[in-house]
């Protein structure tokens, strides 16, 4: 089957690009490996820039139950420091967000093939991009958008992750007291070998998403229960937060080998790389969803404006590089034992430092629409 544009991946970036292109009259086919949207390893933080882009796509996050986030809190050992966020923010599960984006893509006229994974993406003799699916079927288009998220395709792989990060995601129902105490804050918890984020999402549920270097996971016997106990031992604030909490998944969702700091340098003719296939920022910034939306918006605009992919990709990298490097430096600091010991004290003395860090590590730029507010 041949189309004008082929989008590989039906997550945030893939859906956003598909909607933008279809609304401009382009013939778009989107291929998504999952039959239905599901929970994914994601902090589920929506920054001000993400809210802008979602508003432009017609996604009303408030109607989906998004929780307004007004504060950021950093916790290490028994200490915690808090500061108001310098921008509007919200929290919403990826399952709810992806469901809304898929519906918006269908409404825009995107043809969606679900439940089939892409095995390969290659150029044909007629200079078309050909995607071969796991059932042997093929789809062709002159232009392709690579939006497969954390899943690499053979021949289009990102570099290996030297730290071998392992990420975990678990939903909890906190005790009434802890739910009230967390309320409208996004908490960053620090522990040996990594860090985690905990924040409320819709329906009174709390998302705990964390990353740890594999060697620390190995010290816990590659067992989630032992790793969680070690994280709580290192960060008693996290232990307090999870006291009496009810886990809502049988086991955590897991993903490995996350190349933090990756920025794609170049691409091939007619291949626009977006989302995690374009850039992977350290998780603590909460900028992942925003980057997915931002890169999708810019790539769609480049294609519609006849800007070749080989021009677009390095230009995108140059624009994002300064903030990405700052985010990497900040992440390295979070993994330093001395920094973990003194950061909460320093932030109590100067809580504005968290606001400054939040601004400096924003990789994305606002769109041309008014920000969407989330009712409390």
Give the helix/strand layout:
Layout: E1 2-8, H1 12-22, E2 28-32, E3 45-46, H2 48-56, E4 67-76, E5 79-91, H3 94-108, E6 111-114, E7 118-123, E8 129-133, E9 138-146, E10 165-173, H4 176-182, E11 185-191, E12 194-200, E13 206-213, H5 214-219, H6 224-234, H7 236-242, E14 246-247, E15 253-256, E16 271-273, H8 288-304, H9 309-334, H10 337-349, H11 352-360
Parallel strand pairs: 1-2, 1-9, 2-6, 4-11, 9-16
Antiparallel strand pairs: 3-5, 4-5, 7-8, 8-9, 10-13, 10-14, 10-15, 11-12, 12-13
Helix pairs in contact: 1-3, 1-8, 2-8, 6-7, 8-9
How would you explain this protein's 3D organization?
By secondary structure, the chain is an alpha/beta fold. The chain has helices at residues 12-22, 48-56, 94-108, 176-182, 214-219, 224-234, 236-242, 288-304, 309-334, 337-349, 352-360; strands at residues 2-8, 28-32, 45-46, 67-76, 79-91, 111-114, 118-123, 129-133, 138-146, 165-173, 185-191, 194-200, 206-213, 246-247, 253-256, 271-273. Strands 3, 4, 5, 10, 11, 12, 13, 14 and 15 form a nine-stranded mixed β-sheet that branches. Strands 1, 2, 6, 7, 8, 9 and 16 form a seven-stranded mixed β-sheet that branches. The longest helix has 26 residues, at 309-334. The chain is globular.
Brief write-up:
This protein is an alpha/beta fold and 376 residues long.
Percent of sequence in beta strands: 25-35%
Shape: globular
Order of helices and strands: EHEEHEEHEEEEEHEEEHHHEEEHHHH
Percent helix, as a range, is 25-40%
Rg, Cα atoms, Å: 20 Å
The counted number of beta strands is: 16
Structural class: alpha/beta
Biggest sheet statistics:
9 strands, mixed
Stretches where pLDDT falls below 50 for ≥5 residues?
A: 365-373
N/C terminus separation: 47 Å
Number of helices: 11
Overall mean pLDDT stands at 90
